[in-house]
Design goal:
One of its GO terms (molecular function) is hydrolase activity, acting on glycosyl bonds. This protein has 6 helices and 20 strands. The chain has about 350 residues and is α+β, with helices and mostly antiparallel strands. It has 2 domains: about 110 residues; about 240 residues, no CATH class. The strands form 5 sheets. Strands 1-2-3-16-15-17-13-14 form an 8-stranded antiparallel β-sheet, covered by helices on one side. The chain has a 5-stranded antiparallel β-sheet with strand order 4-20-5-18-19, with helices on one face. It has a 3-stranded antiparallel β-sheet with strand order 11-10-12, with no helix packed on it. The longest helix is centred in the first third of the chain and has 66 residues.
Amino acid sequence: MIATVQRFNRTLLLAVAPFVGMLIWILAASFSLQAPTIDWGNDAADAPPSLAEQASPVLGDLDEAAIIAKEISASMKKVSELYSKTNSSMSAIMTTAKAQVNRPALIYDKRITSRLGTVSDSVTTSNLTAQLFRIRAQKFSGYALKVKLKSAGAMNMVLGKDTFGGSETTLAAVKRTGAIAGVNAGGFADSRGKRYPLSTTVVNGKYVNGFEASFNDLFFVGLNDKLELIGGEFSSKEQLDRLNPKFGASFVPVLRKNGVNLSIPSKWQTSPVRAPRTVIANYKDDQLLFLVIDGRDENGSSGATLEEIQLLLTRYGAIDGYNLDGGGSSTLVFKGRVVNSPSDGQLRPLATNFLFFK
């Protein structure tokens, strides 16, 4: 469309150029003639024609040129008006075309947003659009956060206090980095007073403590350099490298893949049955969906089952879904405040947190 407008502009300039050149010549030729008067005495009959007589044809030509210049000026004015109208029409066509191109995406976004319910809070910047929703089910409640990333700096994952073995609450990580929102990420293991991220962990495109092949239902989930959600079980570093991971963490189990709910290993169906949960999922347009489900404690009597989480992912139209660290780790921070109710009664220091930046 832009190329069409440029071709039109070049054609117009070529068409107008001869008129412009002629007008300049005419204006340059519009000069007055003056000469001293010569007395020819008695030989007036032999005198050459007067200057006025000589200039008469020239003045006639100039009058004719002035008329032509006037006509050219009028023609140029019409061409200019035509150009302005055509340019406006082309701009309107481009605007309409752009709107038509974006229409399917807008329709899709409207459809998945309607499934989530009413937006309770939101933030829109040049980096991202984040929308917060309440989840109210018969046996649990919580929040859903839908995020559309618009730039590479919109989302990241950080280690606790940016240190391998360090830990900090999701709220502390949000405040330290100036993030607009945060969600707890992967699992962790404690050793000698340190809190280490579980299994394969990638930060800023680098493996924090090397690659570890998937075992016991562990998976890796994160984002690649195209802001796409990537995840699953990986048997080799080369297999994961092909997806260009930018950041990510590990936990268990995978809940949904390619729009199909996966069978949940029996171990994770009862360990515990119900619990606070955190889940990361995606849509076919690469928007992200986070579910943070509350529970009173981790004794298995409150919160959601993994099967119930799968039902939510199906209802919300998610494509892939991965279970993140839950229990007292489940935390959602939005606009500088903790919006859910962590089951520990206080915030738990974590090894990794997903953060969002405006």
